[in-house]
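Q: What would this chain look like folded?
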Amino acid sequence: MNLVIPEKLAPKRRRSWLPRAWRTPLALVGTVIALVWILVAILAPWIAPHDPLAQDLPRLAAPSGDAIMGTDVNGRDVFSRLLLGAQTTIPLALMLVVCAMVVGTIVGAVAGYLGGWVDEVLMRITDMVMAFPTVILAMVIAASLGPSIMNAVIAGIIVAWPPYARITRSLVLGLRTQNYVVAGRLLGSSPLRSLARDVLPNIAGPVLVLASLDIGTAILLLSGLSFLGLGAQPPTPEWGTMIAAAMQNTSAWWLGLFPGLAILSIVMAFNFIGDSLRDALDPLAAREREAEAPTAVSAAAATGQAA
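A: My prediction, written as structure tokens:
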């Protein structure tokens, strides 16, 4: 005997307003950590317990109630400098990624859409920049421009835009022959309008994923240049310069530990967000990875049983 449950009495599945990719533990952890650091960067001047430039505390004091992360060789509060360092590093890293994304997307879109000699010239310039190791080229550019945090950002933009050009060009090459793009051109759309209206909106997903993953790389690059003396200059609070100062006082473990943990946490957070964004914008690839995981586990179990 089959029982038919009325539709009104059947339990309804609650739908979450978050996509499935954003409900994973790594996505939630990454989002929370990133939001916390962004709030810290915004509110740093008001929540810092001490003036980050004031030298009015005992020198090289270990973490205590007065200075929860200790003090540096000049008697400055490490915790306050860490908070102000977020205000320096995070916004500049975001600006670096946005500028590199815009430049690379424009170059790649123009090269892929127009083709011909324009494509050859732009892609050979891209190849020339990518031929050099990223960090080495950034060091050379920053040293040529002069040690400062803004010159470090400019160096980062110069070395970071080629991957965006490459991925944009490949996507545009696949879209420019689509029926809706050809139809728009036949209806009188100019190349620039067709590119902006029909092509670029359809390649935004992969470009944004690359940008979200690049934020962590940008933070590492800026901190690395500052560590080498080519970025932020003392007494500006910046995580890379704080670690560089810690190298001169290795017995004071707290000088390098806390800035290093700050860099580690923010880089991992944006990497988690980038992975989740990739799964959210490409659900098919995410389902394929999930389908492959049980297969791999079953194969491993079968191999173990056979052994």
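The chain has one domain: 23-49+68-282.
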